[in-house]
Amino acid sequence: MLFNSYIFVFLFLPFAVIGYYGLHHFGWKRAALGYLIMMSMVFYGYNSMAYLAMLVISILVNFFLVRLMDMKSGQGWRRVVLLLGLAYNLGILFYFKYYDFFIENVNTVFRTDYSFLRLALPLGISFYTFQQISYVIDSYKGDCERYDFLAYAAYVSFFPQLIAGPIVYHDELIPQLRAEKNHHLQYENLSRGLYAFSLGMAKKVLAADSLSKIVTAGYADVGALNNISTMFVMVCYSLQIYFDFSGYCDMAYGIGYLFNVTLPINFNSPYKAASIREFWERWHMTLTRFFTKYIYIPLGGSRKGTARTYINVMVVFLVSGIWHGANWTFILWGAVNGLGNLFDRVFDRILRRIPRLIRVLSTFCFCSIAWSMFRAESLEQGFLMIKNLGAAGDGRMYEPLIEAFDKLLEVKLLGWMGLSPLMQACPWLIPAVFAALLVCACLWMRNTQEKVADDRYGLWRIVVTVGLLIWSILSLSEVIDF
After folding, report:
1. With left for phi above 0 and alpha for psi between -120 and 50, is residue 165 left, alpha or beta?
2. Other C-beta atoms lying within 10 Å of the C-beta of residue 301
3. Mean pLDDT, residues 419-447 taken together
4. Signed CA dihedral, 349, 354, 359, 360: sign only
5. Which of 31, 28, 52 is nearest to 40 (CA)?
6. Which of 343, 389, 341, 367 shows the shortest CA–CA distance to 442?
7. Which of 20, 33, 132, 449 is least surrounded by Cβ atoms within 10 Å, i.e. has the fewest?
8. pLDDT tens-digit map of 311-341
9. DSSP readout, 376-422?
């Protein structure tokens, strides 16, 4: 089930909130927690009972492994169980996400003909698997208490963060679900949650889904793009992936507030970053901290000299690329970002002398070029996009890009308002202004967390919340998956 769907907004979410607080109202705490787990399972299994079965099995196996770890106090025994937990979780990820990619490369290198599984990737498997890996490792280290099964199942399956993050640690979520004060509806959190949810849905439905149509048109025939069109598609995809992912996390953040749960911030205006290093301190922050805690630091972090630090940084970024998808484009994207991070480290003192605005714009350009490889279906297509930046052209924008944009309801509305002559004379103007406004919003506007932290909930904020919700819901007729 998607947040940006009628059934979620009008049916699932109201039932989840009302049922949860209703059971708490009668003092039935464990029933309320069980109800939250049940609703999370309904949310996840809405489109596939097979995926739901996988989630349930994953929860049962990891919970059992941690209990098994406690059966004996010997370090050797605990290490064996830890390795079993890592092997199980990483094995599941490999089987569903990377097996066909592995077989494809084996067939290419050794000229074999092993068959593919062609399995559909279970929704959110990377996120809930990483959360459980963190729990198994922390249990091995003795850094967490032994939760009962209901608490653990709620931690893994809590539906706001289940399919697209943020990646939450056990000690961030479970204590909030247990806290007595959080078992009653708090109107301040209700207003915060609805406000954050409305902003996130607007990002997803009005911005990201609109940009998606343009990007899809551009990547349908990369060879036909001139340099102007290529730059426009690259910028549009940079904006699409930000508003898509950030919007979904904002909705999760808002839904968490409806249950009096504060989820960790996952995006902190990443396009305001003045370096690649700073960008990754702001983009997908919970993934960055996961890799820092469980890969970078165990490898030695920055404690073993400059050369070792640089190697560790590259390892983390290569793993990040692989985590995002089973394709050489993702691995190259990770490597490019790793090299960008190292460049910032090496030339930090020199770069700091450059005016910040120039560094911010340069970082955005770097990210846009790197994202073009991330979006590409193959290395060849990705390299062709980059090559197109130097391609000559007549200065006109690729016609299908304009046609894709003109199909948007909001653009049609501009035509009805009398702007048709201008749109016909300068067909590139409206798309360019739209993209430019979104870039300016990323660079200068406050992000959702900053707006939610502002407790001034007056009439204007109510109007914005209701207006964005209505506008977004009216635009849900063409739902685009995250």
Report:
1. left
2. 14
3. 84
4. positive
5. 52
6. 367
7. 449
8. 999 999 999 999 999 999 999 999 999 999 9
9. -SSHHHHHHHHHHTT----SPPPHHHHHHHHTSHHHHHHIIIIIHHH
Q: Which two tokens stand for residue 110?
A: 């050794």
DSSP type of residue 130: H
Span 78-103, mean pLDDT? 95
Q: Taking the CA atoms of the chain, what radius of gyration do you get in angstroms?
A: 24
The closest alpha carbon to 5, from 209, 238, 237, 302, belongs to 209
Residue 374: predicted pLDDT: 96
Q: Longest C-alpha distance within the chain, in Å? A: 79
When mean pLDDT is compared over 100-104, 415-419, 420-424, the highest value belongs to: 100-104
**Sequence letter at residue 439:** V
Task: Write down the mean pLDDT value for the chain.
Answer: 91
Catalytic center residues: 324
> How far is it, in rounded angstroms, from Cα 156 to Cα 151?
9
Measured at the CA of 134, the angle between CA 128 and CA 137, to 5 degrees, comes to: 140
Closest listed residue to residue 293, CA positions, set 137, 157, 156, 147:
137
Nearest residue to 235 (alpha-carbon basis) of 443, 411, 35: 443
455 by DSSP, 3-state: which? coil
Q: Rounded CA gap, 434 and 207, in Å?
A: 9
> Measured between alpha carbons, how far is residue 234 from residues 1, 364, 365, 366 in Å?
29, 11, 9, 11
Long-range contacts from 103-106, C-beta under 8 angstroms, 24+ separation: none
- Residue 133: HSE in the Cβ half-sphere, 13 Å Cα cutoff: 22
pLDDT score, position 424: 73
What pLDDT, in 10s, does the model give residues 252-273?
A: 999 999 999 999 999 999 999 9
DSSP codes of every residue in 9-45? IIIIHHHHHHHHHHHHHTT-HHHHHHHHHHHHHHHHH
Please give the structure tokens belonging to residue 443.
């660079």
Question: Which of 325, 376, 292, 283 is closest to 125 using CA atoms?
Answer: 325
**Is this prediction's pTM over 0.90?**
yes
H or E, element range at 434: helix 429-444
Whether the predicted pLDDT of 144 surpasses 90 = no
Token representation of residue 193: 């949650």
Other CB atoms closer than 10 Å to residue 286's CB: what's the count?
22
- Rounded CA separation 358/340 (Å): 16
Pick the closest to residue 328 from 98, 141, 143, 163 (CA basis).
98
Give the list of residues 6+ apart from residue 27 with CB closer than 8 angstroms, or none. Answer: none
**Kind and range of the H or E element at 92?**
helix 75-93
Which one, of 279, 235, 228, 210, lies nearest residue 440 by Cα? 235
CA 301, 306, 311 angle in degrees (round to 5)? 60
Q: List b or e across 210-219, with b for residues whose CB sees 16 or more CB atoms inside 10 angstroms.
A: bbbbbbbbbb
Find tokens 């001139």 and name the residue: 226
